[in-house]
Amino acid sequence: MSKSRQTTAFSRQRRLCAGLMASAAALLLLPHFAQAQDARSDDDRPPASDNGEQQGVSSAAGQGAGDIVVTGIRATQRNSIEVKRNANVIVDAIVSDEIGATPDQSVGETLERIVGVTADRFKGSASEISIRGLGPFLGFSTLNGREVTSGSGDRSVSFQQFPSELVNGVLVYKSQNASLVEGGTSGIIDLRTLRPLDYGHRRLQAEIRGTYEAYDDKIKGRNGLGYRGSVSYTDQFKLGDGDFGISIGYERADESAPEDFYTESSTSRPCNTIGGGTDRCSYDPESGNPYYFVQNSYLFRQMNNNLTRDAVIGSVQYMPRPELDINLDAQFSRRGWTENRSDLVVAEGRRGITPIDRADNGALNAFSGQSRLESQTRIRDRDEDYYGGGASVEWTDDAAKIGVDVSYSQTKRDQVDRQTRLRTSETSGYDHGRIPYTLDKRSGEPVLTLDPGFDVNDHDLYDDASYARRRAEYRNDKIFAVRLDGTAFVADSFIRSFQGGLRYSDHRRVADLDNANDVSSVDDALIAEGNSQCRINFREKDFMGDSSSNIHSWAEFDPLCTYTTFAGSEDLGPATDPRSTSDINVTEKIMAGYAMANFGTSDDRLGGNVGVRIVNTTVRSVGYRGAFDATLVNGSYMLTPTGGFDTVIRKNNFTNVLPSLNVKYLAAQNFLVRGAIYRAISRPNIEDMGAGRDFSLENSDTNETIADAVAGVQGGNPQLEPLKSWNGDLSFEYYPNQTNLISLALFYKQLQAGVISADAYSNMETFTINGQPVTVPVAQQTNDDSKSDLWGLEINVSQEFTFLPSPFDGFGVTAGYTYADTDFEYEDPSAVDPDYPLRLFTDPASIIGLSHHTFSGQLYYEKGPASLRLLYKYRSDYLKPYQLTANRYATPYNSLDFSAQFKLTDNLRLRFDASNLLNEPQILSRPVPGAVSEVSYYGRRYNLGLKLRL
């Protein structure tokens, strides 16, 4: 082990020891918290079990004249504590008996309030949920216990499609038993929708909120305004001798998602510059030259965005007799997304590089060069539809319980890009139109300085090398599943019951990811026409005004106008033959069975379960192989398909055995100790098992040879198997009363068969280029059978300060901290030059999405008509790779959100929200930490609305 890695390991050990000491100190303080609570009389304490309004329900059932009515944040918090306390696994939750009771913009933001749960911020919205600092790849998500489809390239659920207004609970299982659907090494997220008979009373609710987004207001002709509206109805009726209930909700959103953006091309090379002469750096690490990383291009992006969503969630519950429970539920979501982009591009990022500042790890923080500049436009339209639902029937009596559940989930995503380009030429006054520039990222944000003689806002200077591209992507993800569960109850025995069940699922993902229909060369007359007729003034008042960048405008062109001029139509439509070598068609069939025994002592001091789940998976992957022509375009080789395709089919089958043991012990009054040992798996991203092969069909202007054009081909690996882990969890939980909680959890995972990038030459494949066979390495992922360890701790505190004198007794706080560390290593997957892949020049990264430190803290005040909440979230840096092109690192991130609700009447509430108050940009580095590659600003967001409840 190198000295630097020894130092890093020692530093991590010190942090872990410090966390353990802090946790021990928290446990020592338990008696002081208890003393404050014990100072209250028994009459002041909530009862051990709440019903009706005590759980946030306004029904008169269960209420007496002396009942304490608890609603809002307090009711949700108490419900969540009750779920955690009563569970036989380690679980954290946010549960309300009201639809739309959580003061969040999305389910993703609701999840962020659970201890150990973090999110990636995409355009200001929470996405890519991680549990205990681990990435979304190691987690698993369900809706009402059912697997959910996704429109992204992986399995991660897009939580934005489920509005928080129509969901009444989220649970995060951090340990597992045999009855839970497999797939989450870090944990399982389960979203819950309302069951109307369980709800128990009639409710009509409507809400309207106006939205203001400050960054959108900077765009000329826009005002930053949007809206969200929802309505829901729940009721119960007598139907013969039985009970019938219905619940339905609808939500509509029309908002913008503004963003100012800097990014770089995804391909990184160690100091391979074009036209560098004697200054050109060698790839060879033995040459002694100090290497640095350069990209193909650098760009600044200004975007006008629109986002719409329509969502419906409904359920029907029928109990013809007390033993029989029949449920039908359905969900529908339609999201539309339009991006209107304008990019200023430094197109030849590797030409004539002169380093100014180089970090020890090869990050090129400042440099100069010469490049043609481009004004690019793009209109991206994305439509995503989600359909889901199912039917369940359950019979329960004193002897047994048996249930069957049938479910279906489908997500369709269509995306079309129409893109054009105008580039500088000799008329700019510079040789070959290449403008001298300096790019300085030493401040952590990009500062681009162009030659003083070049006017970046002069439309006349962008008059060359035009094209019109139409690129389409299509995904269709479907899951059909059937589940049968049964329980036999045992009387007067340590074994309380036996459970068993079967589950079958058929998951199919079809993706057409490279449907291209391009005009690769535009004649001079059309270029002149597009330049003169499609000019527009720069659309934003203060582009990247919160950054240190000195590029605040450039010559923009209307996207639709330029595309129509160059292509001869507003939309050329899809290619005649929709097939391509990158197409994906994967079918995953799973058969699982489990057996489990639930046990407990007669005094309920000890309880738990032990069981095993056996899972068999069959994968069938279909792809295409085809030939290509390589032609010179503007001095660079470009690949085009010849149109002929051969079908390839790859299969795989494997079985996983997943035993589990969960124990809960009441060590003292209100003090629980839980332990769990279990085996878990995390399935690879389904598109990573595709048989397709992805070639770069764009003219990057740097392909000096045919080999350059073919280099970098990547694809899936149908032989991938799940990551496996042995897991150990130990949780200490103290409940002074129903309203407060202090817990410490320790967790350990031994990981095996982790997914890593394959060696550069481990998968050689032959393709036909210009009629000749060319054998090249294909970048893909594979399983690593070596073992690695992951460990961590988690602290959770929930405290209501009701013992303080009025008005301070309205305050409360919840806080959660998670520390995680691992010796798992993820080497850089890029192999653009197989002889010198990036892993020779970079240190390995950690598990995808792993943040060593995460923290969330909520301070709330609820008294009288007012309910206020301030929420702070933090996560340390983490790996966020981009496909198989290079490791990408996200820098530490802080966020602060505020919400307020005021009760105007018994039925009417005023609500205000403000998110992203710190207004921090998201900064990503590639291929090493500190090599800034992306900076995103999206501004603050404000909401004001009214909620009516009848």
TrEMBL record:
Family from the record: Belongs to the TonB-dependent receptor family.
PROSITE patterns: TONB_DEPENDENT_REC_3
Keywords, ordered alphabetically: Cell outer membrane, Membrane, Receptor, Signal, TonB box, Transmembrane, Transmembrane beta strand, Transport
Subcellular compartments: Cell outer membrane
Gene3D superfamilies tied to this protein: TonB-dependent receptor, beta-barrel domain, TonB-dependent receptor, plug domain
Membrane topology of the entry: Multi-pass membrane protein
Domain of life: Bacteria
Protein name per its UniProtKB record: TonB-dependent receptor
